[in-house]
Amino acid sequence: MSTRHRTTPSDIRLDSGASGTASRATGDGTPPARRTGLWRRLAVAAIVLAGATACTPTEIALYLRSTAPVADALSADQLYRLRMCESTDNYGAVNPSGTYRGAYQFDQRTWDDVAGRHFPWLVGRDPATVEPWWQDAMARALYSERGAQPWPVCGKKI
């Protein structure tokens, strides 16, 4: 069994070239194009988190570290299409019965099960009140485990 290097924000550097691409300071054999795309998305997410919420560098590092394993599960465009179908892009959405909640219409049991495996601090939280970036991370985590199956209609639009 091989041990994967867990990349931290200190492993990332922005190249000074015109493209402004991100690269990993450590060599792990990942093709540069794939590595650059992932880190570009993570860098954008960090900037959004910092600007939108006044997160500290430590909080941003925690977010990047904890979401890295599922960051490639769905692209931002795929998340948007799923979110539009499930909740018309409303992170606070609640279906009429109150069972399905948040942008990706999680029921509480599924939310808690996925959170318990990926983001334990989200167990017991109402999906409709959790910050949008954590809802996105939870949707990516669920998709990484079960594909589009949890979203039988909207999953076809991913």
Task: Tell me about this structure.
With 158 residues, this protein is mainly alpha-helical. The chain folds into 2 domains: 1-69, no CATH class; 73-158, Lysozyme, CATH 1.10.530. Helices cover 45% and strands 4% of the residues. It has 5 helices and 2 strands, in the order E-E-H-H-H-H-H. The protein has helices spanning 32-53, 57-67, 76-87, 108-118, 132-146; strands at 12-14, 22-24. The protein has a two-stranded antiparallel ribbon. Helix 1 packs across helix 2 (57-67). The chain is globular.
Task: Map the helices and strands.
Elements: E1 12-14, E2 22-24, H1 32-53, H2 57-67, H3 76-87, H4 108-118, H5 132-146
Antiparallel strand pairs: 1-2
Helix pairs in contact: 1-2
Which key phrases capture this entry?
158 residues, mainly alpha, Lysozyme, 2 domains, two-stranded antiparallel ribbon, 2 strands, globular, disordered N terminus
